[in-house]
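Reply to dn_fold:

You asked what the input looked like. This is it:
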Amino acid sequence: PDYQNVQELPYLDMVIAETLRMYPPAFRFTREAAKDCVVLGQRIPAGAVIETAVGHLHHNPDFWPEPEKFIPERFTEDAKKERHPFAYLPFGAGPRGCIGMKMGLLETKITLLRILQKFQFKTCPETEIPLQLKSKATLGPKNGVYIMLESR
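and this is what came back:
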């Protein structure tokens, strides 16, 4: 796979986006208020720390019907137009959003394609389903993920 090839795989983009919705790399992020302001009637003083709970946002049924189900079609072009612009924030947003987002997504796509060309994934009984998660600085599996690879 090369750069051009991976740009022509919209379903792969949708699968990755849905994976990042369900399991965002940063489960929450914080910002500091630069100046006093009022948001929805609530006064926020300069210097206050504001936390965005991305994991909860990405599982909010107001934005994501059946949030615990893996549905890549949530990320069709039409579906994205219908959604609130800040309902999906796996990399943050605005001037302090992740600077490496595009490179990270490109690396993810190329790596997945290379692996999937050579191997088929099989689940192992040691992997808990549903997956139990832990959140420290980033979100990850509590007890690991075990898979078996079979050559194609």
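The mean pLDDT is 92.
Hope that clears it up.
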